[in-house]
Amino acid sequence: MRRTTDIEDLLRLHAPQVLGALVRRYGHFDTAEDAVQEALLAAAGQWPEAGVPDNPRGWLIKVASRRLVDALRAEDARRAREEKAAALALPPAERVPQDDDTLSLLFLCCHPDLPPPAQIALTLRAVGGLTTVEIARAYLVPEATMAQRISRAKQKIKGVRFGRPDNWVERLPAVLHTLYLIFNEGYTATSGPALQRRDLSGEAIRLTRAVHRLLPDTGEVTGLLALMLLTDARREARTGPHGDLVPLDEQDRDRWDKVAVEEGVALVTHALSSGPAGPYQLRAAIAAVHDEAPSAEAVDWREILGLYDVLVRLVPGPVELLNRAVAVAMVHGPEAGLAEVDSLEGELGHRRDAVRGHLLERAGSYDEARAAYESAAGQTLSLPEQRYLQGRAARLRD
To answer: Over the stretch 91-104, which tens digit does the pLDDT of each residue have?
Structure first.
C-alpha cells in the first residue's frame, strides 16, 4: 500500500496531463477542469485502500471522461446533445501525447488576454493541481476572491483553441514569467508571518522541470530551472531557529543543498554554451557565482558586476538596477553603490531603503542607516523582514 503523500504526488503529476487530454478532445475547459478534480478526489479516496491501478493516468482519464460526459448531458437535455456527448470517445491513454498536453495547458493558462494574477492562479489550479483554498492561502486573499479570479479567467479563455499556439515561441516568455513569479512568491513571501512558502517554490520548480523536459534545448527554459535550483539550494540556511531572516552573507553554507547547486551549475553552464544568454541564464550565472564560492568573502563580485552589466542592458528594470548597485558597492565601495541607488527610478517598495541602510551602515553613516532600516521596515508586509530590519535599526541605535 502506498503512502498518502506518494499518491498525492502521483495525482499532482498526472493532473495536467489528464486535463490536457480532456480539453484537447472535448473542449469545455471549465467543465473539464471540474471533471478532473472529481476524478482526483475519487482516486484520493479509493487508491489508498484499493491500490494504485497499473495505468493510473488511464484510470483518471476514464473517470474524468465519464464525469465530463455526464456534465455535458446535464447541461443540455436535448437528445441530440446527449448523443453527441455520448459519442465522443477519448483515444486510448497510451496514444495521448501527454507531454505536449502539459505544455499546451501552460500556454492556455498564460494566455495574453489574462492579467498576470489570473495567469498565476489558473496555472496553479489547472497545471499545479492546487485547490482554490490553497492558492488563496498562498496569496493571502479570501477564498471567494480567488474563486472569482479563477472563474473569470476560465470564462475569458472559453473557446480558445487548445494546443500549442502557432506563435508559441513568442508566448513562451509569458509562461516562464508566470513560473518565475510563482517561485519568487514562494521563496520570499511578500506578506504574512512566514518568510517562505515552500509549497509554491516547490511547485514552480516541478512545473519548470516539466517545461524543461519538453524544451530541453531552449536556453531560457534551462536558465530558469537553473536559477530556481541555485536559489532554492539556500533555503534551509535562510532562516534561523525561530524563522528569522538570515542574509546571504551570514548564511551557513554547509546547510546549502549541494546536490541542487551541482545540478543548477551544470544546467546554466550548458545553457550559456548553447547560444546568446538571456535574462534567466544571466540571473542563474550570478546565482552560480554566489553558490560556488566557499565563503561570503570569496565571492567574485567583479564577475557578478560584469554579469549585471550585461543583464541590465537586456532588462533595465528597477530591481535589476538595484541589485547591480549592490555589486557596484562591493567592487568600488559603499559610496559608489549609494550613488547608484539614489539615481534609480521606479517602484521598488521597501527594497530601496533596505539596500540604502545596508550601504550606509558599511559607509559608517549609522544614524542615516538606522533611519533607512526603519523606513524599510515600515513598508514591508513580511513579518520576518520587518523583524530583521527593525533588528538592524535597533543594533545601530544601541
So the answer is: 444 444 455 677 78
Question: What are residue 239's DSSP bridge partners?
Answer: 245
For residues 209 and 16, what is the distance between their CA atoms, to the nearest angstrom?
14
CB contact set of 85 (below 8 Å; sequence gap of 6+) = 69, 72, 73
Rounded (10°) angle between helices 366-379 and 383-397: 160
Can you name the residues that pair with 245 across neighbouring β-strands? 239
Residue 76: which pLDDT band, with cuts at 50, 70 and 90? low
**At residue 138, does pLDDT exceed 80?**
no
Question: If you ran DSSP here, which 8-state letter would residue 162 be given?
Answer: P
**% of the chain at pLDDT higher than 90:** 45
5 band by pLDDT with thresholds 50, 70 and 90: low
Name the residue type at position 303: E
Place of cell 539550494: 233
Query: If you ran DSSP here, which 8-state letter would residue 381 be given?
Result: E
- Please state the φ and ψ torsions of residue 320, each to the nearest 5 degrees: -60, -40
Query: pLDDT tens for residues 245-300?
Result: 999 999 999 999 999 999 999 999 999 987 789 999 999 999 999 999 999 999 99
Question: CB-based contacts of 357: which residues, under 8 Å, 6+ apart?
Answer: 369, 370, 372, 373, 376, 389, 392, 393
CA–CA distance, 69 with 81 (Å, rounded to integer)? 10
Q: Please, which residues have CB within 8 angstroms of residue 128's CB and are 6 or more apart in sequence?
A: 12, 16, 203, 206, 207
All three cell numbers of 179, joined, read 513560473
CA 247/CA 337 separation, integer angstroms: 18
| 369-398 core/surface letters (b: 16 or more CB in 10 A; e: else) | bbbbbbbbbebbebbbbbbbbeebbeebee
